[in-house]
Structures are given as C-alpha cells and as structure tokens.
Design goal:
291 residues, alpha/beta, Rossmann fold, four-stranded antiparallel β-sheet, 9 helices, 11 strands, 30% helix, globular
Length: 291
C-alpha cells in the first residue's frame, strides 16, 4: 500500500498528500515513516515504515535518563500538572475518580492524589508500571486500546499521549465509554499550527530539514492542531468546555536541545502566542449525552 493510500485516523479518507518522507531513521528516538496531510480534514499523521508498529518503550521515557528526570519528574512538571488539574471540577462527597492514560511513572497520579482525587493510571510500558507500583500507585499494565471500562471515572487525563498513537479516535471513544455522563476528559498535546512548526516548515522548504526531523521524525505519529483535535473530540462524543494554548516550557524539553536552539525555540513560540500559535494545546472536554 502506498503512503497516500493510507486512511486518515480522524476522518478515514484516503489519498492524502505526502508532505515529508522521513522513512530513514536519524536517531534512536526516531519512528520512521511518511508524514501525510489529509485532503479531507485538518489531520496530519505518519504512515509507519515498520509494519510491526510502534515500540512499547522510548528512550528518555523512564529510569535514570536525564530527559525523563526533567520532562516527566521535575518540579516544573509537577507544577504544570497541579495547575491543569486545578481547573477540573470536583464532585461533592466521595473523591473524584481519575484515570491517567499514559501514566509513565505516575507523577500526575501523585499530584492528583495530593489534590484529593481518587487517582489511578494506565501505561503500556512494563518498566513504567513497575516504577509506579513500587511507589504504591495503582497503575494498570495495558495498551490504551485494550483497556475497557464502562462509566468508571469522572475524569480521564491524557498528557503528552494522544500524539503517540496511530488510532486516536478509537482511544477517545473508549475514554467516552469509561467516563460517567458529564465526565471530563483533559488532553494536552502539541499544536501543529504553532509558530515553531511554521518556522520549521519554512526552513525545510529552504533545505534545512533538521527542525522538521525533530518535530515529525521522532515518536509522534499523529499531529493535531486546534481544529483537528476539536473534530476528533466531537466525533468521539465530547463537547469542548475550554481550550487554551500553552507556551513551550524551556524547563522541561522532551529531548536534548542545545541552549542556543532552546532559546530560539522559546522566543519563536512566544512571538506566535498573541496570534493563537503557541506550541501546546490544553483541552477540557465533557462527555455529551449521546454520540
């Protein structure tokens, strides 16, 4: 099957445009494939070169790796999680039940417990689950696609997760099933209409492909923006309650970035923020009565 014949993971259309051929890996964190732009909706996605699909573990995701320490476990990360969870409604009486999908080593769960949630998690990585359980946290070892629950939670969080899966709509539909009526889904993901991505695309058109490889060549396979994420949520049975754009946080880069590139990335992102082009999206969505 040609890359352009692959079905869009959002609308199902085929015949998309291959924008970048990144089928040759450039580093251990790369997931090779072709970046395709759907012609029928705003979705961009990667058609993987390896038919075996995605790995279960990525470098820098767990253990003593310095990237994991700054991106997943730092004080800046904990503060970010607390800030985002503060906008989630609590129910009166019993603690609000929360599921964190893509829980890694359970840092968000720890912060949610401190805020009074009855929190548990889900992760497909055995080392992550082992590390979380060693801290006394409840984390299920399963792929999000295989986790089946019915009206078990008031809140589901997916932070830095949905961009890593090839079937985001199916996972969103399972989240809808797992939430009680009126339950809340919180999604945090890169915004691919951000100014950082726009600059990277301009540089690629001029022959400088390094930034594009960093954004599209790594372990992200679905590339959402404010339009496509809203459409995906609506298709899965959610109504967006609140959406905001969040600037890139230089205190927690998700990969090694030189000080010069980090300063440039931060400056470009802040320049784009007044125009609705910040690099991160945070969306709070409610389960509607019917899909």
């Amino acid at each position: 099957m040609s890359h352009s014949a692959a079905a869009c993971p959002l609308c199902g259309a085929v015949g998309g445009e291959v924008v970048y051929d990144l089928s040759a890996a450039d580093g251990v964190e790369d997931v090779p494939g072709a970046v395709v732009r759907c012609r029928s909706c705003p979705m961009w996605f990667k058609v993987l070169s390896d038919p075996a699909g995605l790995p279960n573990d990525y470098p820098g995701e767990s253990g003593d790796d310095q990237i994991a320490a700054t991106y997943l476990r730092s004080d800046a990360t904990r503060a970010l999680f607390r800030k985002f969870l503060a906008d989630v409604p609590h129910r009166s009486g019993a603690p609000t039940r929360l599921l964190d999908i893509g829980a890694a080593e359970g840092v968000l769960i720890e912060e949610a417990l401190r805020l009074g949630f009855a929190a548990e998690g889900l992760d497909h990585s055995a080392p992550n689950v082992h590390a979380a359980r060693a801290k006394g946290l409840m984390v299920h070892h399963a792929a999000a696609e295989d986790f089946d629950a019915c009206e078990a939670f008031e809140v589901i969080t997916m932070f830095d997760f949905i961009e890593h899966v090839t079937n985001p709509l199916r996972i969103l539909q399972q989240c809808e099933r797992a939430l009680i009526p009126g339950g809340e889904l919180v999604v945090f993901t890169p915004n691919h209409r951000g100014s950082v991505v726009g600059l990277a695309r301009l540089l690629a058109a001029g022959g400088i492909r390094y930034p594009i490889r960093q954004i599209f060549g790594r372990n992200h396979v679905c590339f959402f923006d404010d339009r496509s994420l809203a459409q995906a949520l609506a298709r899965a049975g959610f109504a967006v309650r609140h959406q905001r754009q969040v600037p890139y946080d230089p205190r927690r880069p998700g990969q090694y970035v030189s000080p010069l590139n980090l300063a440039a990335l931060t400056a470009v992102d802040w320049l784009g923020r007044p125009f609705g082009r910040a690099f991160r999206l945070l969306v709070y969505a409610r389960k509607t009565a019917a899909v």
